[in-house]
Amino acid sequence: MRPIFAALLGSLAFGFSGSAHADDLAEALNFAAAIMGDEIVEGYEDFMDWDETEALPILLAKKVVPGEPPEHYGSDSAGFERSDFFQTLGASRLDFATLRPFIEEAANETGLPVQLIDAVIRTESGYRAGAVSKAGAQGLMQLIPTTAASVGVSDPFDPRQNILGGSRYLRKMYDEFGSLELAIAAYNAGPNAVKKHSGIPPFPETRQYVATVIKRYKSKLE
Questions:
Q1: What is the pLDDT along the chain (222 residues), one digit of tens a residue?
Q2: Which amino acids are annotated catalytic?
Q3: Are 159 and 93 a contacting pair, CB within 8 Å?
Q4: Strand ranges inside the chain, DSSP E
């Protein structure tokens, strides 16, 4: 078992008072990153690439035992219960190569960098077109239905529509606030929260979200 993933299990269990219940991938990763830094997210993604079928159920298990290896969470294990939200993550995890034509189309339309759009997709859904958060955000760029409708998206689970719509909304936030950091914060917490706090809202999740997106965006530029 990779040490970085063992640390993730421990931090998740600690944060949820002995039993982890991650309602969606982004929330769980943001929670872990808030405690141990963005490297925990990168470590989990490495684990996903190594064996996605084992890693994802573990992260979304209602009962996580710190330090136990992946095989501990087999389907016959008494300590394993899949999260009620497991199926909402979708059956498959896409990748940048698959989504690139849609990302480039969105970049051409909105003027946003390809690398930025990709960073938001990674952070919002981990490339899962079927993802649905407990708040009802849907698809790759996690669009709330009212937001999706406002940017011309009729099917938020269609990768092309979702990416175009999410990019349009992110561009709208940038035009409104004139700052990349504030645009990303508004994408996560809403424009009213940014206005109310005259800057990035003091929410741990939002601050971590902005830091993660910026870090991923800049890493693609290097």
A1: 344 444 444 444 333 333 333 344 555 556 555 545 555 556 555 555 544 444 454 455 445 555 555 455 454 444 444 443 334 555 567 889 999 999 999 999 999 999 999 999 988 888 888 888 777 889 999 999 999 999 999 999 999 999 999 999 999 999 999 999 999 999 999 999 999 999 999 998 888 889 889 988 998 887
A2: 124
A3: no
A4: none
Q: Where are the domains of the chain?
A: 3-86, 96-221
Cβ neighbours of residue 74 closer than 8 Å, sequence gap 6 or more: 80
Q: Which two tokens stand for residue 21?
A: 């219940």
- d(CA 175, CA 169) in angstroms, rounded, equals 10
Helix ranges restricted to H, 144-203: 145-150, 159-177, 180-189, 191-197
Whole-model pTM over 0.90: no
Q: What is the CATH number of domain 96-221?
A: 1.10.530.10
82 in the Ramachandran plot: left (φ > 0), alpha (ψ -120 to 50) or beta?
A: beta
Q: Which tokens go with 102?
A: 């849609």
Q: Is 197 buried (19+), middle (13-18) or exposed (0-12) by CB count in 10 A?
A: middle
Residue 51 is inside which H or E element, if any? helix 39-59
104 within 8 A of 194, measured Cβ to Cβ: no
Contact 217, 115 (CB under 8 A): yes
